[in-house]
Amino acid sequence: MIRKIVTALILLPIAALIVLFAVGNRAPVTIALDPIAAQPPMFALSVPLFLLLLIVLIAGVIIGGAAAWMRQSRWRRRARRLGAELKAARAESETLRRQLEASTPAPPQPQGSIAAIAYRHPTAA
Predict the structure, then answer these.
(1) How far apart are CA 32 and CA 29, in angstroms?
(2) Cα distance from N-terminal residue to C-terminal residue, the chain
(3) How much is the average pLDDT of 35-53?
(4) Is 111 helix (H, G, I), strand (E, B) or coil?
(5) 3-class SS at 121?
(6) What residue ranges do the domains of the chain occupy?
(7) Do residues 21 and 50 make contact, with C-beta atoms less than 8 angstroms apart?
């Protein structure tokens, strides 16, 4: 419950700022994609400033996420390899446990008297 309240206290002001920014910056801005800068730009686009900034923000989040995902590929690959090794080791352990249980004789039956338990003959295994 507290987490939802804190999230609302953080997200609501941010959302209000975004709305205020969008309403205050509706004027179109010309984006020129012509590096030579001809008088009338060859490749130009006119969009509202808030839309341009939101598009740049979204593109930055996507590019940053892709970069982080690519940098973590080494760890994901290692986790997959170690998971496969663990699975193989568990299977081998289970196989060896079954073989050991099959090859060992049943434990000897306990003898009835305390003297028989306390005293063992030196030649008894």
Answers:
(1) 10
(2) 66
(3) 81
(4) coil
(5) coil
(6) 8-58, 68-100
(7) yes
